[in-house]
Structures are given as C-alpha cells and as structure tokens.
Amino acid sequence: MTIDKIIDDILCSYDKYGGINLEEAHNFPNRQNVIDILHDIHFLIFPGFRTADDIDRQTLRYVTGQRVNRIVSMLTREIKKALLYTVRNAEVEQSHCFQLAEQTSLALIEEIPELRRKIGKDVQAAYDGDPAAKSTKEVIVSYPGLEAIVVYRIAHFLIKSGVPVIPRIMTEYAHSRTGIDINPGADIGESFFIDHGTGVVIGETCTIGNNVKIYQGVTLGALSVKKELMNKKRHPTIEDNVTIYANSTILGGQTVIGHDSVIGGNTWITRSVPPNSTLTQGKRQDPT
Fold it and tell me: Within its chain, how far is the Cα of 155 from the centroid?
C-alpha cells in the first residue's frame, strides 16, 4: 500500500467516524495553551520556585507584569473559544463572549492574592501533617498533593465563574502529572492536605470542610453513575477536621462524615458517620 493510499484511508476515516475529529481546532480551547497559562499562574502564586528565571526585587515587578499580561491575553482567547463552542447553536455575538472572557480573566488575576492565602494554608497543612516534610519550601517544590490542590483551586474559581471545558483541562492535566483526580466542581475548604496522593479521586459534587487530611487511594465518589443524575449531589460531604486513611471509599451524595472523625484504611462507607467517630474495618467506635 502506498503512502498516498494510506493518507486517503485516514482522511476517509474522518468522514466515516465523526465525533472524534476537530476540523476547526482553532474554535476549541487549546490544551497546550491552557497548560502554558497554568504555568504562568503557578509563577504568580510561587514566584521563584518553579521557574528558571533569575528573579530579584529589582526584576520581580517587570516579570510579574509580563506574566499577568500574557495570562490575560491567552486566557481571554481560550475562554472566548470555550464560550462560543458551548453556545455554538445559539445566536451569540462574538463580542459578547470576548467581553465575558476578558472580565473572567481579569477576575482571576484579581483573585491571585486570595488564592495565595488559601494555598499558603494548604502548604502549612502539608508541612504540619507530614513528619517527613523538612520545610514548607520542600512541600512547594516536590509534593504532588499540593500541585493537584493548586490546580484545583485555580480551576474551581473558573468553573464557578461559568467557564466551560478549560477547568477540566486543567485538573486532568494535574491528574496526569500527580495521579490525583480532583473534579473542579468539588467544594473544598481551607488547610487541605493530600498525603502521597496516588489514586485519590474527589467527585464533582463532593463537599470538603476545613482541616481535612486524606491519604493515597481514597475515593470520594458516587453510588450511581447514571447520566440522569448529572445535576444531583452524587458525592459525599466531609466535615471539618476529618482524617481519611489510605484506600478508603466513601460513596453517595447523602453520605456525611461528621466533623473530627477518623476513617481507617481500606474501609467502604455508604452511610453517614456521626461527628467524633473512629471507623475501621469491621469496627466502629461512636462518640461516648
């Protein structure tokens, strides 16, 4: 078979197997652009930690301004494409989508100080919660749990701002790098720590309070994955000051893990647990 015939067969498959083509790729958010935007936002959150740039007090303002302008420009373009694609069957003016995209991009930049405050508490939670951590700097440069949380907090802001597609690209990129799958729609409080992290899954409608610690292999999932449940609360609520040890599975939108509880490793939970409980395999110790 000649190369020309092979090319013809591939092109024919584009018509035959529709739905996995993207002939107008310029009209859909570009994954690599979104990743590049994430890297620039990481710089604003952790200046000097994750870049080869030679930064000092004299150059910091210039480099920060450079990143801010690049983020606003690129993110506005990608959000506009996401909005237009989502409403492609409706009569929507491109100028309106551009205005919404620019407003959201600027709002994210304005949110950076608050994101840094929250992420600073996540860093401290990791340092306080892991005896192996020698410094907060070590946490910032090396902990996959923190990386996944940082990306989640950025993506969560965007999804709450009505941005489609892009937040999921961000969190799935973090998933591919860390093995930690946090849906951007989840609602997670402050001082959140994921230790080790590989295999952690946190579903879209999960609610997590403050000062929660979870270990590798934990699933906060749904009892059913039927498509008609997409707009229902399908994932559990974890209240404040809860620790969930490795490979535990907690399922269901009505399942609540009460505050100050400890969930032992390898447990399977589909019913609520009262506050101040300790639950392990085959044994539950309720508060006295």
Answer: 5
Tokens of 242: 């809860």
Strand partners, 213: 193, 243
Q: How many CB atoms sit inside 10 A of residue 108's CB?
A: 22
* pLDDT tens digits along 173-216: 999 999 999 999 999 999 999 999 999 999 999 999 999 999 99
Q: How many CB atoms lie within 10 A of CB 182?
A: 29
Q: Return the closest-CA partner of residue 146 out of 121, 169, 164.
A: 121
User: Residue 224: helix, strand or coil by DSSP?
Assistant: coil
Q: How far apart are CA 105 and CA 157, in angstroms?
A: 11
Which of 13, 11, 276, 31 has its CA nearest to residue 170? 31
Residue type, 134: K
Q: How far apart are CA 232 and CA 170, in angstroms?
A: 23
Tokens describing residue 133 = 């951590």
Residue 58's contacts (CB-CB under 8 Å, 6 or more residues apart) are: none
The tokens describing 79, both together, are 């959000």
pTM above 0.85, yes or no: yes
